[in-house]
Amino acid sequence: MSISSFWLCIVTILVGHQANLAPCHAKDSLQIKIFETSRAGAKLMERTHEHLSSANDSELPTIRIQKEQRFQKIFGFGGAFTESTAYVLNQLDSEKRKEVINSYFSPAGANYSLTRTHINSCDFSLDTYAYANTASDINLVDFSVEPDLDDLVPLIQDALAVPHAEFKIIASPWTAPPWMKDNNLWYGGSLKSEFYPTWALYFSKYIQEYEKLGIPIWSVTVENEPLGNGAQWESMIYTPATMADFIKNHLGPRFQEDGIDTKILIYDQNRDHLKQWVTEVFSDPEVAKFVYGTAVHWYSSTVEWYPEVLTEVHEAFPDKPLIETEGCIDAEIPHWQDDDWYWSKEATDWGYDWAPEEDKHLHPKYVPVYRYARDIIGGLNSWLSGWVDWNLVLDDKGGPNHAKNWCIAPVLVKPETKEVYYTPLYYVMAHFSKFIRPGAIRLGIDCEAKDLMVTACSNPNGSIAVVALNQTEKAVSYKLVCDNLHTTLTIPAEAIQTIVLD
To answer: For residues 377 and 455, is the Cβ–Cβ distance under 8 A?
Structure first.
């Protein structure tokens, strides 16, 4: 072999190696897939395949993927298994019920990857219940998850059985049994200090009993909404100090003793008080060592996703992931078979009527589709590592639930006729859950298209998913750039788009 041939071989090997490291450099064009949901009627519609080209003669605003900028790992996206959801699905025949479950958990559907459920009853249960009802049973001899066996457990088991389903479960208590509380009620009140050890044991038994049923619990939150909910339904109050005490001296050691590797998340309420909570709880390293991360909700505003708060908390505690564990269109009775309502600025939340006057500006009327997409994109770009919707399915009246706390779910069922309605919210969730997979890493984005919100993630399989939201009444054309490759794309008016670069 001549010297020149030798070096040609070496160069060829090195170029090939670099191509494997940086897929956008692998060739002069790169196949992409485009999926679109719009007010005009597209529902996760796949558009004609286009390709990125090294040609670059466009003067359009640029959206540039910065692959060298790598941020948080993504756990996934999904919704919650509640007793209400399970009950409604059981009103359908077996084939229709299976269709809905597959639509959420199959790779051919939304492919949900992060979910939540409740420990004891919650507002979206048919009634109040607990797993231990014998007063002063401190060793929980009578503990049983039997109340979940009719509806809730079979639903989760069937979801887990969907071929190639892949999802984690977060479990949250709304309250301890009343006999453990200082007011002896389901609503409000606090856990009595003498029952801290028993309540920690309760978590352990719950996780072990669910494991026996083939349901692994990935993480628990210490309490759903520890600031309370006005004692309207199941609730139990903590301060940052009492939650820290419970974790440090009871829940963390209990999990250690019982060999439980389920992760512990703190807070689990709205973002407006997030910084105070995490600062106080994580200030003690003996507490922080037991805590994996922090859970948040979205109900403090219909328009604000609190990027400054989320970013400040991440920067203060970069090793503690932030996960959105609950958000929904609350205080609304569902609009049945009316797609356009979900694209209209007509929805109101609890705060529209009930927020203090100084907070009213945070609760204007809003577009449901935009609220979901904006919060997820903005949240991802502000360090959220996962996003969980509330009920997977509700009936056309927004229930059932014993608290009369009517809400909307992405999938609705009319029990009398056995009809199923996939609202536009289902497709919005799928734009993220289907294409941004567990283990994905958020990438940097430079976006010159001021009318768009955009995020991008690199998946474990090497693909890159870019999600763009256009809230304006006009189509927006832009130039998508990945390394030295470019293409011109257009997102229609009032639309969400996912672009997958293979």
So the answer is: yes
